[in-house]
Amino acid sequence: MFKLILIFFLLAQSLLYANPISDRQELMRDYNKLMRAANNLIRENEINDDLASIYEEIEEIIRVYPTLFPDDSFGGKSKASTDIIDNRELFNQIAKETENSAALAKLSAQEGEFENVMQFHQNLFGSCKSCHSRFKN
Ligand code: HEC
Asked: What is the pTM of this model?
């Protein structure tokens, strides 16, 4: 009986907490793909609602992203630096700025404002390096 309870408990836990490492790595791959899709639309001068919805997805990804780094989720398959644990404020701040750039890119795309889209798209591209150089091994 005890074993059964234990198995049930472990199962429930793994369902609740899934695997933050693989979850966040998948989100980064999605972010990468979405940026490429946005690039293609911009290159074809398609500043429209499709582009806006890509930025909306990015906004959503980067909003949840910093919640996927519990203290016990470092090492192993993860390339995340333990600096995240020691500097959560900065990590969260970079994520927040990225989220804001995505929100502004979305609005600009909806309004068809090419120059602004370019500006905020560049900011999103800059986010990769500013976060990776500090927080990715
Ligand atoms: C707020 C911080 C942050 C931002 C912004 C960010 N990254 Fe990351 N990225 C990380 C961290 C941390 C990892 C390592 C996560 C891990 O392995 O646990 C990572 C990992 C990755 C990976 C590897 C995923 C895998 O399969 O293991 C890719 C690809 C990636 N990032 C692409 C990007 C791109 C492209 C951008 C910008 C357009 C970007 N990232 C912006 C923090 C960030």
From this structure: 0.90
- Indicate the angle between helix axes 20-43 and 49-64, nearest 10 degrees: 160
What is the number of domains present in the chain? 1
Pocket of ligand 1 contains residue 54 by CB under 6 Å: no
Rounded to 5 degrees, φ, ψ at 112 are: 70, 30
Question: Quick one: tokens of 91?
Answer: 């990590």
The CATH number assigned to the domain holding 130 equals 1.20.120.10
Residue 12 domain-assigned (yes or no): no
Ligand 1 closest atom vs CA 95? 1
pLDDT tens figures, 64-102: 999 999 999 999 999 999 999 999 999 999 999 999 999
